[in-house]
Heparin cofactor 2
Amino acid sequence: MQRSPHPLMLFLLLASVCGKHGLVGQPVDGGEDPKSADPRWGQMKSRNQSRPLLPTDFHKDTVTNEWIADGEEDEDYLDLEKIFGDDDDYIDIVDAVSPADPMASAGNVLQLFPGKSRIQRLNILNAKFAFNLYRALKEQASASDNIFLAPVGISTAMGMLCLGLRGETHKQVHAALHFTDFVNASSKYELGTIHNLFRKLTHRLFRRDFGYTLRAVNDLYVQRQFPILDDFRTKVRQYYFAEVQAADFADPAFLSETNHHVARLTKGLIKDTLQDIDPATQMMILNCIYFKGSWVNKFPVEMTHNHNFRLNEREVVKVPMMQTKGAFLAASDQELDCEILQLDYVGGVSMLVVVPHKLSGMKTLEAQLTPQVVEKWQKSMTNRTREVLLPKFKLEKDYNLVEALRSVGVTALFDRNSNLTGISDQRIAIDLVTPALCTFPALSPLPPQG
């Protein structure tokens, strides 16, 4: 007798703080016209500067606390020259592709692989997935909506889920995440290579003090008595530092405890992540990312004043506009008719601000965002001292990712016949009844100091 499938109410709760994508609008009548700006800017401040010490308990809530994988020394996570140098563990030759092969066209993201480390190559494909997901979310939004998301959290959660997918379900998710492109890039690569790189990436991003605060946690909650395969349990811990934890989703205490956990991790910036949860839920993946950094060129508080900010061709509002002057990297893209500014944080991370010369150019710009375009911008950037005005903003968004993931080719995952046999030996399926499925709550206050 065939058993009916268990409803696998899969929540991908991906919380992010202090990041920005797609801020709609432009400063006017008080800000500098980006089209008149000279992108060739002078010598940028050195990155070799003192970095503030973090509290001794900084890593207390970080899942990668004291994890050093077997066979890898602690210094491996500190030596950036080794990590991004010519070590055979990080640099591979991309297998030769015949020029006649359509995959060798200029639009193929694999053209960015030569000379890149494995982790850099993974980041390129994560970016490609991010831009595709961004466009899918934009299709669901109104013209005036802002889009805010942390793609690395979504990629990480989906990568973890991939460990339990099989057949067509696995194939579709791998293709959407562009993991298939990665495996096809070199005969040295296989499926396990991707998960191993996520482990390395997670460890390097969140383990050490690079001058900014970056925390993350992967929690995987499973309904008590629901059978999870030991192999899946072992691999999510091995590659994604996630512990499978028993939970009673029908117990109201689970909501409050989880919300308290997220609020504590994000210093109270994200509250009430879970409003409710279907008691029939069998598994929940919780992925949180918390980032806080200090600008290399700070925006003095006393320089923040109200300026006009254009929402569209007809509507202008007054907003607090931060202002500073310093050395910045920037570029001008004549083809996409936009200006690009890089705002650096202490520690070698940065925010890219892209402003079209015309409001009507935003749609064209969004449609053509690719890793190739971003790399072109970065290679063409020059330095000069300039004045920068940036609106203070706070974004809080809540997305249902199901339709967005369908738009990028993930359909079998949400079918009643989806193949998740790598998670449990019982027949399970993702249930679409709950509107909270695949929710992305995000919050971003952007203060003058960082």
Summary: The mean pLDDT is 74. Residues 8 and 429 are 5 Å apart (CA to CA). The domain at 26-51+300-391 is CATH 2.30.39.10 (Alpha-1-antitrypsin; domain 1). The radius of gyration is 22 Å.
